[in-house]
Amino acid sequence: MIRGLTPPAGFAGASRRGGVRPVTVSQLESQRKEFLQGAGATIESATTGTVDNRPAVRLRYKISGNGFTVSDTEYDIIVTGTLAVGAAQHQSVYDVIVLVVGTPVSQPNTALVDWISSTIRILP
Predict the structure, then answer these.
(1) Tens-of-pLDDT digits for all 124 residues of the chain?
(2) Closest CA to 77 of 110, 99, 46, 105
(3) Is there a domain that residue 69 lies in?
(4) Closest of 4, 7, 16 to residue 93, by C-alpha
(5) Long-range contacts for 4-8 (Cβ within 8 Å, ≥24 apart)?
(6) Which of 17, 49, 75, 115 lies 20 to 30 A from 87 at CA?
(7) Does some domain include residue 35?
(8) Which range of residues forms the domain containing residue 65?
């Protein structure tokens, strides 16, 4: 978050959801849209593709909270790996990496969002 301004001029956040069941990009898109809409978000667009050759969803939406509305761009990236569960056995592990970039609707910082978006490209 860019501090010192209320509302902040912009923010970026990252998180990881580990131990996710096997999921397709279309299932992930549907789940995230349902969750965000349940939290009061208005989805403006959804794009699926890949980020760094991994299945990904980009969602653009507006959501309100704490007295102001923000415009967010969210990237949800499916990452798979393997975990040894025995001498000769492995189990697939699924994680979802979530990156969110946003600015308040009342004080848009499109330069921030455009700069970060230029470093995270979702390819068809």
Answers:
(1) 444 555 566 788 899 988 777 789 999 999 999 999 999 999 999 999 999 999 999 999 999 988 889 999 999 999 988 777 778 888 788 899 999 988 888 888 778 777 877 778 777 7
(2) 99
(3) yes
(4) 16
(5) 5/107, 7/68, 7/70, 7/104, 7/106, 7/107, 8/104
(6) 17
(7) yes
(8) 23-77+101-119
